[in-house]
Amino acid sequence: MAREKFEDALEKLEQIVRRMEAGEMSLDExxxxxxxxxxxxxxxxxxxxxxxxxxxxxxxxGDLLTTKPFGGDDA
Length: 75
Fold this sequence. Notes:
By secondary structure, this protein is an alpha+beta fold. It has helices spanning 6-22, 27-54; strands spanning 56-61, 64-69. Strand 1 and strand 2 (64-69) form a beta hairpin. The longest helix has 28 residues, at 27-54.
């Protein structure tokens, strides 16, 4: 099973929000859309957490390049 892309999940989430805001969905359709929206929000948050962990900042210490986690403490 292919891993769903962040951008695709975000686009689907935006479509769900637009449909729900239009107010033309039945209660059952709204509940299903809400459940799908929650799944997509969790997926997007997980992808962002993964990306944040993967982003590292290169630092020069003397003649060596070292890495530091993005947003990490400077201490």
